[in-house]
Amino acid sequence: MSLADRIQQHFQDSAAAKLAALAAMAAPIEAATRRMVASLKAGGKVMACGNGGSAADSQHFAAELLNRFEKERPPLAAIALTTDTSTLTSIANDYRYEDVFAKQVQALGKAGDVLLAISTSGNSPNVIEAIHTAHARGVAVVALTGRNGGKIAALLGPGDVHLCVPAERTARIQEVHLLTIHCLCDGIDALILGETQ
Description:
globular; five-stranded parallel β-sheet; single chain; Rossmann fold; alpha/beta; 5 strands; 197 residues; 57% helix
């Protein structure tokens, strides 16, 4: 297969993964959007966490809410728990890497907040610990996963929302995660600005 063919295949596979995810994810994305807006309108915040590419997605999501997505509106309370290297490294060094997000949720999370927990496999130990802590603090969880949802799928309760990409390849899951984040941001703006119900 030529390099040009490989590139074309990536585009075709990405488009197919997104279209295949639509039926399974549209309703949960709407539910997650409404949950986040309810929190924000009540004075809550959205915290986001993940590892690697999912850490970058956490930052991307928080930046779109705190600054703006595509339209002018007041800043929204959002924080990526992946960005403070002093906090991350001190927790990992003094305790365990599994605690790097959980301790932040314990310190910053309050009842009515939302945690966006991102893990392509659904098995990231530090994201799982953050979910346990969120539940203990009365923080709702929106889990953004892939494949079959991994261990995270079994942790979610009736007040949580699971956004699970029905794909196997990490790259395809991450591409749908980015589209999902943009759908969340657009939906949040539309509801906050009264453009939709």
